[in-house]
Amino acid sequence: MFSLIFFLMIQMASSQEFTFQTEIQKWPEGKKAAISLTYDDGTYNQFDIALPIMEELNMKGTFYINTGEIPSSRYRAKFLGRDPQLIIDETATVKTSMNNIFERASLIRFLDMSGAVSFHDRAGATFEQGRIEEACEILDEAYSAARKLKTVKLISPKIIDGPMIDWDRIREYAKRGHEFGVHTISHPRLAVLDEPNLLYELEKCRDEIEEQLGREFLFSAECPFGTENERVMEYALDMFPATRNRMPEAYLEEINRSGMFDPSKDYDKAYIQWQRGPLSKTSPELMNSWVDDILTREDTWLVLVFHGIEGIGWEAIPEERIKSYFEYIDSKSSDIWVGTFAEVTQYMRQRMATPIEMKISGNNQINIQLTSELDPYWYNQDLTLKTYLPKSWNKIEIAQKDYSGPLEIQKDDKGNFVQYIANSQNGEIILRNITD
């Protein structure tokens, strides 16, 4: 990893030495923290209620959508594999084990019988907790019920609570700057799917989003139920530049929804990602405290995970609570950057992978070059730079590519500085001390 700070000593005309220092700020505009407002499933009131509130406050959100129940979607949930009757018949004589658990867990959610999806979810959750034998027993119970009912017919599992908006509205929201990402076709427990069904859920959701919105909306994904299963993550991280489930960056301390964050702790990473999932009974005071906690530091990214809103969806949060919470976040806007999951990820990665080269031209000009080997298709965020200057410099102008203009000189305990926006794809940055 390249250093983010480069020092260069020069002899000034006054014969005093000065250390020029340029650094990329941790967050845009030198803010103290970042927040991403993310939503799972794509239920109706996320768009009908929460999104308009965000837009009133000039906030953008990230929506991880299950595409299979969107009315005009091309790809629907389906089971891939052997004849279901053969699988069901085998369960009468062959117990579920690691030899067949993935196939059976993949099929069970499609059987036309009461509780089919629940059996799948219970088995998947138990499997991820490492209780393999118990997960197998749950599936044996499920197939025993299927045999008694003589169930063979397959139906698409109904996952989403309430109506779904269609792609025409989603395209409009995407044009307005909101991020959309993969959340699978039909919200299964991916950890207990066999490879064909696991890949179908991820790949066809991906393909649907690309066809409807474009490749730029394939940056991030969220595998359902916040899974961190190693097998699932291997597939997902190979398929997408980022997942909300896991971001295995050397510089990032991940504290997911089950973890605890201590704002007073001395973490040894450059950044902290702290996920919180507000539920229907989460108090406003607790939700506000998460915002307050991240403002005691300058390295924390709070990723909020919402599901249901105002009576529709899992753990639905009332409209008034969402509104007051977003207004509370907005009241801290001088110190908090609200960015989509993609924007924050891209900014951090660019900052950590962008070295700075500085040259001094005489006594009144600095030439700064940003370089990055990251894929420019995904990584084109403007970065906020901060350059410290000699006290004798009192009128500064910046030039980069097709832009030039004055900069305000500011001061902190380290000295005089200017703060400005730059992009590694726009070529050299020139800072001039205007002496006329």
TrEMBL record:
Residue ranges of every copy of the NodB homology domain listed in the record: 30-73, 162-236
The UniProt record lists the keyword Endoplasmic reticulum: no
UniProt xrefs under InterPro entries: Glyco_hydro/deAcase_b/a-brl, NODB_dom, Polysacch_Deacetylase
Any Pfam family matching the protein: Polysacc_deac_1
GO terms, molecular function: hydrolase activity, acting on carbon-nitrogen (but not peptide) bonds; hydrolase activity, acting on glycosyl bonds
Keywords recorded for this protein, A-Z: Carbohydrate metabolism, Glycosidase, Hydrolase, Polysaccharide degradation, Signal, Xylan degradation
GO biological process, one term: xylan catabolic process
Protein's UniProt name: Predicted xylanase/chitin deacetylase
Organism phylogeny: Bacteria, Pseudomonadati, Bacteroidota, Cytophagia, Cytophagales
